[in-house]
Write a structure and sequence with these properties.
Rossmann fold; binds uridine-5'-diphosphate-glucuronic acid; 6-stranded parallel beta sheet; 8-stranded mixed beta sheet; 3 domains; 19 helices; alpha/beta; N-(1-d-carboxylethyl)-l-norvaline Dehydrogenase, domain 2
């Protein structure tokens, strides 16, 4: 099949590459010529483990092409997949201007009976809106399909090649049959449904996962006060098949380019039909509040944070990515700077991206986790990168003036941290004082 993907962000680049890996002929189109140049030179403009190798393999096999020339890409395509961004507007509503622009541009180039599939996360009704836009610019018959994407940053290839399910929103038999055929090799559950339900499945899935996270974070906050251990609670809950163990990791709240944007958008979608989505509003509010636990614990341990020297381990919104969009670290770092703290930041790969958002004379950019903690009054773990999880905590505490460890991702055993000499503040477990006599 000839497949053209519009947009080479996470979703577009990864799914285009995976379709090529399945043996299709794929053209990825992007307006950003510098991105296309990087891709054509064999580079990958995003950090995603394993992606560069698969891109390279498929370019060499002649199955994967990159271009800024939309019309040449679309003319031969059996499937045109729209994977452009839908960023949030200040109201929380998704900005659909990129999708509409793309629809106008592809319309005159579509071949007869082409399938236009929307992979971008779009509010209910957008597929119909896009169909109308395309109809204004072409006389060719074509099909529209909703094809929501469920890949995660950091595990994007695995999620695309081995998805839990494929959702196809189609209103015509031939389109549903062709889409099913295209995804059959992925050997997974394929659900064919109507377009509006497919669009809603994506938002409802992200909103539900966000709800699980805010729920466990509130349970964690209560656990701290009643002396329970949230890790034990999550384990006990997760063994119930109706609940399941995933997305019950308490911490400093969710970030990234999806959950914050999609929860806001779903609240707005509900509001547009005069439905007040109270539960989801609370999920967002709890998430926003959760990050301040780090500051409260620091203040409890150190009193005033003015002129305190604090190390930050991890800046990306989760491990396995250099993405800092909506990362809790952004607000935590800003708040600490406002409070007069002096910060030593380290992340294995996200420091460059982070420095595009915040620079300040009181920030020192460090080359390693150990360098960051030197002479510090406290260290805060904000992203659970493996290198922090497996770090020598005794060695780290010895570098510090005042060994306080705020574990925002709950990754250490209390006993290990206190034996290493830390006053240890996890999430949803009791605070433990160092056992080392200083
Ligand atoms: C999320 C969804 O998981 C994907 O299915 C979806 O396709 C994607 O959004 C999207 O809409 O494009 P992603 O944002 O890459 O994927 O990251 P997740 O792994 O879901 O993590 C999101 C945030 O939740 C991270 O900040 C993570 O630290 C946090 N999280 C996750 C927790 O705090 N606790 C958990 O138990 C799980």
């Amino acid at each position: 099949m000839n497949i053209t993907v519009i947009g080479t962000g996470y979703v577009g680049l990864v799914s285009g590459t995976c379709y090529a890996e399945l043996g299709h002929h794929v053209t990825c189109v992007d307006k950003d010529s510098s991105k296309i140049q990087v891709l054509n030179e064999g580079g990958v403009p995003i950090y995603e483990p394993g992606l560069a190798e698969v891109v390279e393999r498929n370019i060499r096999a002649g199955r994967l092409h990159f271009t800024t020339d939309l019309s040449s890409g679309v003319q031969a395509a059996d499937f045109v997949i729209l994977a452009v961004g839908t960023p949030s507007m200040p109201s929380g509503e998704a900005n659909l201007s990129f999708i509409e622009e793309a629809a106008i541009e592809i319309a005159p180039c579509l071949k007869r009976d082409a399938i236009v599939a929307i992979k971008s996360t779009v509010p209910v009704g957008t597929n119909e809106r896009v169909r109308k836009v395309i109809l204004q610019h072409t006389k060719q018959p074509f099909y529209t399909v909703s094809l929501p994407e469920f890949l995660r940053e950091g595990t994007a290839l695995q999620d695309t090649i081995h998805p839990d399910r494929i959702i196809i929103g189609a209103e015509s038999e031939p389109a549903a049959a062709l889409m099913t055929e295209l995804h059959k090799p992925l050997a997974t559950q394929i659900i064919v449904t109507d377009i509006r339900s497919a669009e809603m499945i994506k938002y409802a899935s992200n909103a539900f996962l966000a709800t699980k996270i805010s729920f466990i974070n509130e349970i964690a906050n209560i656990c701290e006060k009643v002396g329970a251990d949230v890790n034990e609670v999550a384990k006990g809950m997760g063994l119930d098949k109706r609940i399941g163990p995933s997305f019950l990791q308490a911490g400093i709240g969710y970030g990234g380019s999806c959950f914050p944007k999609d929860t806001d958008a779903l609240i707005q979608i509900a509001g547009n039909v005069e439905y007040d989505f109270k539960l989801l509003k609370s999920v967002v509010e709890v998430n926003q509040m959760q990050r301040w636990g780090v500051i409260d614990k620091l203040s409890h341990a150190l009193g005033s944070l003015k002129d305190k020297r604090i190390a930050i381990w991890g800046l990306s919104f989760k491990p396995g990515t250099d993405d800092v969009r909506e990362a809790p670290s952004l607000q935590i770092v800003n708040r600490l700077l406002e409070m007069g703290a002096s910060l030593r930041l380290y992340d294995p790969i996200a420091m460059h991206n982070f420095s595009q958002h915040i620079t300040h004379p009181n920030i020192a950019w460090c080359q390693s986790a150990m360098e960051a903690v030197k002479q510090c009054d406290a260290v805060c773990l904000l992203t659970e990168w493996d290198e922090f999880v497996h770090i020598d905590l005794s060695k780290a505490s010895q570098q510090m003036n005042h060994p306080v460890l705020i574990d925002g991702r709950n990754v250490y055993r209390s006993q290990t941290a206190v034996q290493a000499g830390f006053d240890y503040y996890p999430v949803g477990r009791s605070y433990s004082k160092s056992e080392v006599i200083r």
